[in-house]
Amino acid sequence: MKIATILLVAVLVEAITEWLKLSVPKLDDNTPWIYAVTAVIGIGVCFGTGAGILSAMGVSCPFWLDYIMSGIIVSRGSNYVHDLMNRLTKVKEPEYEVYGIEEQHIEPTDAEALG
Fold this sequence. Notes:
The protein has five helices and no strands. By secondary structure, the chain is mostly helical. The radius of gyration is 26 Å and the shape is flat. The protein has one domain. Helix content is 63%, strand content 0%.
């Protein structure tokens, strides 16, 4: 399994979680059990896609344990993916504005005009 696969699964878990939060008004980032919901989604996605991080790293364990652990890892990673996407898509506002500066026209001296 490649890093791109793990990242894709994390993005998928994040997308499902965000959709669920929009669909269920009581479910938001301040809900204390949002991590449990995200973990269940991550475990389900790992079972559904067969994405086992531990077996890919050479750890010998039952497939179901691999998918459960991978789902928990991916669910935590989806939060970091979410934060990264927010930072990348956030439009940066100017930190300050300059007031009172007018365009000034300065006439060249005779020496500058000649060359």
